[in-house]
């Protein structure tokens, strides 16, 4: 069998093993990782090829899945044709799609060639939760591979950028946030000298815009109530400066351990952790709530199929509960920021509307900077296509 024929068979076997979990396993990326790591016959390029094919399958599942039983060869060829081009996929793509026309850039042109519809790729419940996603430009962006964004946290950014040049990593500076740099997804930024020195952190631009959309005063004391591994904690610590303090909290001790490693690497001295944070009052509280992740489908396409209306209802209940709990820690006159990486109305505007109805001592504050997005009564929705980011929602409130 030819090399490509063999790779096609391996791809179909992998899909056969993963398919039962496509709509059920929220930890599918870990499952994929383990499955690829276990195969000793794979080199790193093979792993990158199969990973890209698996993720492409998940991105385009409604187009591809019906073919797996009926015509697996066509399914494999379609996935190869739709996959992004990289050193790992180039050969396979060109051989597998020999008889296919050139793959066009846009989703609608791809759909035309396949005689399929772009909107079929979005779950019907999501079309109601986020009608903006049906716009061809938005839907197109949501089906591309995500860029890699970093946030500079150094007084010598030129040294970082010179290192990127030496590594031959193409980079460009964001037009709306000068310390945000976009790189191609394959740049191995976590191995660079500048990274190990703490000169930058990997953080999607959309995530950076959450805090950048609202004014936060240097020198304040803040609580990051759902800090996770600290993506936003580190950004907040820099905004607050040496006179300010961020207290980070999360229910996952392993996330806090990672946060402390990152804080150490970045050299920031103004980050504390607390296991009982609501006994204090703070100038500001950030609730970056757990969510269905519909803003992150480019990186985690399985979440599109794993999370449906009932899970979203569960998330919305938890989000309101967390907002109520941590709002208690905001001093009077202080600020409360609610954020999610979801684009779902039920997890965003509805949660804020319900919270404000119950807690009239909090009032919405309009964003300081809306980065070109349409201002809405309950907050700002950061849609992926405008600045090539993940999708986020952020609402800023002030306690009377
Ligand atoms: C969206 S993630 C946070 C991401 C993080 N802020 C960042 O910027 O990288 C949500 C976090 O909420 C945490 N969480 C869930 N329930 C919680 C609770 N009751 N109190 C505090 N954190 C909670 C989760 O462990 C998870 O790390």
Q: What's the structural blueprint in terms of helices and strands?
A:
Blueprint: H1 3-18, H2 28-38, H3 44-59, H4 61-70, H5 72-82, H6 90-96, H7 107-114, H8 124-129, H9 136-142, E1 148-152, H10 157-166, E2 171-173, E3 180-183, H11 193-196, E4 200-202, H12 205-212, E5 221-224, H13 231-240, E6 245-248, H14 253-266, E7 271-273, E8 282-288, H15 303-306, H16 309-327, E9 330-340, H17 349-358, E10 362-365, E11 380-382, H18 384-387, E12 392-399
Parallel strand pairs: 5-6, 5-8, 6-7, 8-9
Antiparallel strand pairs: 1-3, 1-4, 2-3, 9-12, 10-12, 11-12
The chain binds S-adenosylmethionine (SAM).
Give a quick precis of the structure.
This protein is α/β, with parallel strands linked by helices. The chain is built from 18 helices and twelve strands.
């Amino acid at each position: 069998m030819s090399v490509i024929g063999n790779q096609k068979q391996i791809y179909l076997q992998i899909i056969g093993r993963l398919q039962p979990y496509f709509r059920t396993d929220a930890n599918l990326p870990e499952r994929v990782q383990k499955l690829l790591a276990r195969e000793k016959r794979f080199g790193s390029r093979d792993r990158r090829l199969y990973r890209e094919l698996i993720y492409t399958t998940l991105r385009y599942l409604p187009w591809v899945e019906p073919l797996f039983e009926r015509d697996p060869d066509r399914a494999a060829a379609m996935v190869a044709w739709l996959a992004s081009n990289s050193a790992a996929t180039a050969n396979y793509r060109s051989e597998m799609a020999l008889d296919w026309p050139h793959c066009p850039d846009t989703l609608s042109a791809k759909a035309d060639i396949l005689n399929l519809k772009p909107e079929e790729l979005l779950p019907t419940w999501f079309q109601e939760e986020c009608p903006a996603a049906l716009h061809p430009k938005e839907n197109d962006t949501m089906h591309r591979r995500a860029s890699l964004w970093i946030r500079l946290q150094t007084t010598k950014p030129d040294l970082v950028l010179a290192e990127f040049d030496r590594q031959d990593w193409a980079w460009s500076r964001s037009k709306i946030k000068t310390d945000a740099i976009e790189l191609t997804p394959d740049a191995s930024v976590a191995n660079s000298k500048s990274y190990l020195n703490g000169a930058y952190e990997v953080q999607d631009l959309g995530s950076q815009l959450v805090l950048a959309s609202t004014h936060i005063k240097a020198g304040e004391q803040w609580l990051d109530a759902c800090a996770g591994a600290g993506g936003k904690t580190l950004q907040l610590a820099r905004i607050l400066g040496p006179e300010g303090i961020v207290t980070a909290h999360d229910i996952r001790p392993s996330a806090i351990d990672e946060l402390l490693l990152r804080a150490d690497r970045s050299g920031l001295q103004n980050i504390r952790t607390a296991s009982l944070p609501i006994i204090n009052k703070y100038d500001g509280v950030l609730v970056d709530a757990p969510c269905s992740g519909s803003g992150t489908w480019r990186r985690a396409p399985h979440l599109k199929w794993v999370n449906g209306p009932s899970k979203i209802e569960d998330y919305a209940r938890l989000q309101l509960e967390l907002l109520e709990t941590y709002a208690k820690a905001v001093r009077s006159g202080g600020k409360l920021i609610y954020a999610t990486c979801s684009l779902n109305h039920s997890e965003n505007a509805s949660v804020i509307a319900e919270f404000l109805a119950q807690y009239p001592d909090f009032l919405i504050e309009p964003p300081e900077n809306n980065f070109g997005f349409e201002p809405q009564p309950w907050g700002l929705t950061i849609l992926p296509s405008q600045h090539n980011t993940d999708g986020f929602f952020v609402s800023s409130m002030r306690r009377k």
